[in-house]
Backbone:
């Protein structure tokens, strides 16, 4: 019987093909853990395709905790359910595949995580509440269950309410008034004022002040024309493999444009000059040939505020998600031009947002209210302006009217009850900024025709056909070798992890941080945001001889701006990398020799150089070993073909190597999701005297794939999906005396988003002490120390373990091969064989 039960459980998800979406709320560690769980129950986990895209047509479920991913629209069109991680957890806990409706991450489904039961509610009201909750993403159960989240009741006397109190269940007991107010607004407001046994709405008058809430949905979206400048070097991997066109109508100066170009290309994107060549089109207004062409061609079209949002957050969001992230209508919305609108009871970002939204709609915003005002937008019905508006017969509405009028591109009827609804103890600022654009509305008015989204009635393949197709076309990959022991769970729970300023804690586990101090300072490295002078010149002023001449001069420079630039890079790699027993042994091969210091001839015809078509980073290439003259001549020939050879800390389009190698260059390049070519491509181009098709030279290395236990094509696909966030926010320490030095490991870890620190344990702690109770009872997150078994390194182990345990974290002292394996697989896994004590004991 136990075997039969286990077999049934193992086949729970056997008809499911699940794709995961990496985000700040769904980390690599969580994806790995959940992937193992669903596989144990019979599901197939879909790897991304070669371009790093989700296999939407082959999926039965897409697991994401947000709708902020580029293929969400495709999933909607093809009716592939997108569910949160709670769907997996509840499916496994109940032993039955859960319905998808309550687990949608779409904020428009306002009751998507609500599982409701009713207590002492009249049958007629119960049916209304039941039906409306279901229609907006919730579920209704007749009886109390462990999954119930809300009990709708009029008092605490009903057996269901008594059971909640007796068993101390986490579900909330709310008055039906809460559902009524949510239904009227079409938004989910806070349950606080409606909670039994002592609901605020029954004991406090509506005239009493209500705290103005923060506007969590408006961050970076209060204006279509941000007045800030993105300064400094930023990692914007969100632009990897994406081509961006900046429209002339943005009206930004040359300095601002250069900063944006540097950030985009520093994140391994490209800035292009034509709509046909771009994936992303950034403009200010919803008009002009370029806008119409880009929108009709299903490009991503957004404004400068949206571009800044992507840069600052380094995570994808649709420009349709927030109203002021999409280009504005040049002359506003018809009908608004004669309106004078003022606002009341909104504060902070919400007030700024409404001011700018009113102006974008074409109306006049007034700070104070006079008799000639036409409309008052307010979050509550109690203020001096509200009193004056009633005396002067001025229309009083909530913000939903202006938001929905702007989103629908026409003035909405003032008679709709939702625009005049003001819950007694709620400031509606808490739901501002949730209204979204609809693509079909924008298309009908601003760019009719062109490419249509995929039809919703298009039949997808049957599960059996699609599964067979997946077997034939998807890259084969085993999460771990059959012979390897089971991997321990990685309990990094996907908290938002950002590295704070120096001087604060920087290990961000459950809101905790690691303190930066002198004992853990690491050598500075050249930012990946830097670009060669040539790439800057070509992207900004194509074909101008003066800039190209400056580039030629710069290209000959030996590189004195950082430990990994120019001649110093090649010299330092050759000098520092030992070939004895090192997993970085291949780094000792001459990968890129320095350019000559000889100045270009004045008679050289600089203007004949073509635009850079591809930027290639070489590693392990032996064609120029010991022959600087040949290298110099070959580089010029390649550049004349449109091929630029770049360093590994610069933006690149391709990585070229004779075979798979676990070198710094190879693993940093792989993290960028670039195509990996056989370095024979360079030789063949030189032989042919022209740029050949790189697709004919994709690296195939079965021997090393077998050696490392992976498929290169799968790693590249994962890297494109990860966009440099595989180890986002993961704290990785390294001993100062590690073989080969910590710098190479730092470069690899940071290329994948990790927080890297050198551990010397001289004094103090860099993880804030905390307890399980302070962390909400959650299991400890892992923290890694890269270490070998040298006496000076082993002496640090006990101190590191104590520091981690005092901070309620799980210490993992691992060999550097763990990091190299993770970076090569592009999957965050952990196997106990990588523990240093096991690795060296097992040989």
Residues:
């Amino acid at each position: 019987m136990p075997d039969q039960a286990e077999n049934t459980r193992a086949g729970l998800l056997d008809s499911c093909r699940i794709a995961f979406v990496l985000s700040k709320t769904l980390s690599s560690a969580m994806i790995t853990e959940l992937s193992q769980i669903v596989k144990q129950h019979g599901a197939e986990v879909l790897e991304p395709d070669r371009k790093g895209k989700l296999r939407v047509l082959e999926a039965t479920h897409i697991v994401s905790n947000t709708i902020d991913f580029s293929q969400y629209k495709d999933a909607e069109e093809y009716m592939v359910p997108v569910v949160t991680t709670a769907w997996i957890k509840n499916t496994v806990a109940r032993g039955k595949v859960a319905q998808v409706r309550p687990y949608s991450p779409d904020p428009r489904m306002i009751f998507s995580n609500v599982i409701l039961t009713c207590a002492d509610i009249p049958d007629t009201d119960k049916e209304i509440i039941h039906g409306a909750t279901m229609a907006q993403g919730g579920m209704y159960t007749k009886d109390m269950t462990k999954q119930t989240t809300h009990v709708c009741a009029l008092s605490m006397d009903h057996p269901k309410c008594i059971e909640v109190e007796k068993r101390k269940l986490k579900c909330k007991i709310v008055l039906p008034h809460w559902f009524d107010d949510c239904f009227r607004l079409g938004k989910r407001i806070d349950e606080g004022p409606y909670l039994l046994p002592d609901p605020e709405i029954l004991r406090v008058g509506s005239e009493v002040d209500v705290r103005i809430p923060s506007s969590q949905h408006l961050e970076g979206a209060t204006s279509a024309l941000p007045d800030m400048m993105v300064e400094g070097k930023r990692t914007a991997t969100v632009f990897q493999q994406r081509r961006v066109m900046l429209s002339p109508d943005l009206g930004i100066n040359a300095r601002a444009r250069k900063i944006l170009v540097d950030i985009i290309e520093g994140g391994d994107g490209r800035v292009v000059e034509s709509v046909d060549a771009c994936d992303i089109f950034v403009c200010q207004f919803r008009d002009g040939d370029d806008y119409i062409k880009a929108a009709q061609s299903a490009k991503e079209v957004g404004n400068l505020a949206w571009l800044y949002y992507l840069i600052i957050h380094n995570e994808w969001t649709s420009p349709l998600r927030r109203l002021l992230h999409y280009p504005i209508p040049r002359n506003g919305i018809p009908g608004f031009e004669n309106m004078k609108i003022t606002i009341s009871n909104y504060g902070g970002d919400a007030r700024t947002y409404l001011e700018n939204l009113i102006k974008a709609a074409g109306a006049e915003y007034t700070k104070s209210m006079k008799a000639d005002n036409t409309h008052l937008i307010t979050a509550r019905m109690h203020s001096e302006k509200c009193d004056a508006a009633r005396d002067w017969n001025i229309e009083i509405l909530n913000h939903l009217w202006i938001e929905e009028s702007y989103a629908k591109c026409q003035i909405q009827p003032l008679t709709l009850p939702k625009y005049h609804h003001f819950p007694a103890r709620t400031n509606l600022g808490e739901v501002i900024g949730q209204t979204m654009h609809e693509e079909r509305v924008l298309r009908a008015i601003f760019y009719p025709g062109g490419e249509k989204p995929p039809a919703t009635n298009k039949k997808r393949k049957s599960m059996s056909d699609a599964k067979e197709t997946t077997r034939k076309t998807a890259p084969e990959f085993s999460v771990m070798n059959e012979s390897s022991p089971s991997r321990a769970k990685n309990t990094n729970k996907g908290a938002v992890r950002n590295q704070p300023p120096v001087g604060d804690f920087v290990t961000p586990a459950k809101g905790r941080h690691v303190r930066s101090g002198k004992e853990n300072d690491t050598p500075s490295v050249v930012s990946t945001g830097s670009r060669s002078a040539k790439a800057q010149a070509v992207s900004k002023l194509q074909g101008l001889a003066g800039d190209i001449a400056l580039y030629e001069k710069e290209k000959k420079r030996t590189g004195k701006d950082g430990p990994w630039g120019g001649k110093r890079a090649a010299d330092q790699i050759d000098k520092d990398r030992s070939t004895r027993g090192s997993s970085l042994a291949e780094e000792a091969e001459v990968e890129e020799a320095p350019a000559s210091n000889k100045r270009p001839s004045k008679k050289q015809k600089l203007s004949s150089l073509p635009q850079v078509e591809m930027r290639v980073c070489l590693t392990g290439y032996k064609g120029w070993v010991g022959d600087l003259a040949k290298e110099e001549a070959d580089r010029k020939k390649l550049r004349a073909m449109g091929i630029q050879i770049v360093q590994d800390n610069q933006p690149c389009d391709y990585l070229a190597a004779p075979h798979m190698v676990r070198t710094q260059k190879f693993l940093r390049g792989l993290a960028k999701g670039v195509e990996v070519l056989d370095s024979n491509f360079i030789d063949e181009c030189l032989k042919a005297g022209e740029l050949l098709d790189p697709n004919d030279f994709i690296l195939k290395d079965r021997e090393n794939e077998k050696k490392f236990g992976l498929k290169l094509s799968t790693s590249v696909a994962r890297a494109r999906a990860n966009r440099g966030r595989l180890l986002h926010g993961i704290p990785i320490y390294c001993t100062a005396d590690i073989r080969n030095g910590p710098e190479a490991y730092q470069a690899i870890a940071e290329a994948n988003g990790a927080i890297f620190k050198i551990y010397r344990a001289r004094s103090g702690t860099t993880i804030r002490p905390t307890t399980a109770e302070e962390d909400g009872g959650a299991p400890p997150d892992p923290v890694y120390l890269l270490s070998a078994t040298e006496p000076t390194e082993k002496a640090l182990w006990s101190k590191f373990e104590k520091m981690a345990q005092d901070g309620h974290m799980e210490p993992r002292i691992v060999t550097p091969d763990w990091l190299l394996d993770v970076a090569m697989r592009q999957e965050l896994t952990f196997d106990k064989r990588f523990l240093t004590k096991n690795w060296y004991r097992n040989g």
Observations:
- The radius of gyration is 29 Å.
- Residues 533-698 form a domain with the Rossmann fold fold (CATH 3.40.50.10190).
- The CA atoms of residues 436 and 759 lie 47 Å apart.
